[in-house]
Structure formats: structure tokens, C-alpha cells
């Protein structure tokens, strides 16, 4: 029987936070903005980056390029800045080689998430992807997990795993969607108000090692 695992993208498989800080510093330098602009820019895109975000940025710093042009440049810059560790890419291959169906369930706009998936080499290493914008819902909505499962040729009703860094959207959302869960803690403590994940690991590489171990495989196939 095929086993399913869905991964979050940002700060799970790729270091979005690092890429955003690099981008903000470059952006501030490109437009000769004041020193504190870099911090403000990070705050502007931290939670969510949308085309409309750049209407605000353009007005705030009185920039000449159109908001659409700034947004497209942002997508390109972030896609160039993000990296997926080689061990994680190899881990995705190893999962699929051992019978896992591997998918990505990510919140964001389709163009930037797809650009990151292409640039990091992840797009060619997964069975299916669901970007929230394409289904008109965001994690923790079950529709996003279901669409990712279907993109992988599976269904949530067949069970599976969700791996992610966000306690609410990835782990609580995944659990409510009927998936078992692995939380990427990135050095943080689990928020006690939420039901605990099945496993806590420091990073995606450790999550993949856990999935490749016999214990996770058996628990999914039963
Ligand atoms: Mg994330």
C-alpha cells in the first residue's frame, strides 16, 4: 500500500525567514532606503506576501516601479534566495523510492510558491502540490490537505502524515484533517494549548529519517 506524506514548504523544507531577510537588505540597498527600512520590509512580508503588499511598499517608500513590477521582482528575488538542503532533496527521493507518495501543502500565492518549488528543485521531486490560493482556502482548512492528497493520487481517508513548522496551520490543521503529524520545532517549545503532535523533530532532515524508519511506515499502513 502507498503511504502518503505531506510537507509544508516555508520554514519546513526551505528557509523562508532567511530568504526574506536577505531580500529586504537587498531591496533597501537597491532603492537607497534608510537603515530601518529593511526591518520594516521584513515585517511587511513576514506573515503573508501578496501583490497588494507592494502597493503599500511602493507608497510607503515613494518608489517609481509599479506595484506589479515590484511584486514580480519580489517573487523572482525570493525564488533565487531560497535553498532546499541537499540532504532534504535526497530524502524526498529516498521516500519516493521506498513507496511513499510525497506532497506539498503550502499557504501562499501560486506564482511565488511555484517559483520557489522550481528554483529549489523540489517541484520535480514530489508527486503533488497544493498551493492554498489554487483552492481558495488556507491551512488549517482541510480542503488544502485534501487537495494535496488528491494531487498525489491519494485521499485523506487513506491516512498519512503531515510535516510542518506551524503549530496551528500544519499540525493542528493536519491532525483535524485526519493525518498523523511531525512538528519541525526550529528550537521552539510546543504551545501547550494545542494537542501535541505525534513527533517533534528539529528539522526536515530528521522528519524524513523518522518517516523512513520502520515505525512510521507500519503505523501508516495498518
Ligand atoms: Mg511553514
Strand tally is: 6
- Spell out the helices and strands N to C: EHHHHHEHEHHEHEEHH
Proportion of beta-strand residues: 5-15%
Spatial ordering of strands, largest sheet = 3-2-1-4-5-6
CATH architecture of the largest domain: 3-Layer(aba) Sandwich
Low-confidence segments, given as residue ranges, are none
Which key phrases capture this entry?
Rossmann fold, 6 strands, 222 residues, alpha/beta, single chain, six-stranded parallel beta sheet, 13% strand, binds magnesium ion
Topology:
Layout: E1 3-7, H1 16-30, H2 37-46, H3 53-61, H4 67-81, H5 86-97, E2 100-106, H6 110-120, E3 128-131, H7 132-135, H8 142-151, E4 161-164, H9 167-176, E5 180-184, E6 199-201, H10 204-212, H11 214-221
Parallel strand pairs: 1-2, 1-4, 2-3, 4-5, 5-6
Magnesium ion (MG) binds at residues 8, 10-12, 164-166.
Overview of this protein structure:
The chain has helices spanning 16-30, 37-46, 53-61, 67-81, 86-97, 110-120, 132-135, 142-151, 167-176, 204-212, 214-221, and strands at residues 3-7, 100-106, 128-131, 161-164, 180-184, 199-201. It is α/β, with parallel strands linked by helices and 222 residues long. It folds into 2 domains: 3-15 and 83-221, HAD superfamily/HAD-like (Rossmann fold), CATH 3.40.50.1000; 16-81, no CATH class. Strands 3-2-1-4-5-6 form a 6-stranded parallel β-sheet, sandwiched between helices. Helix 6 links the parallel strand 2 (100-106) and strand 3 (128-131). The longest helix is centred in the first third of the chain and has 15 residues, at 16-30. The mean pLDDT is 94. The structure holds magnesium ion. Residues 8, 10-12, 164-166 line the site of magnesium ion.
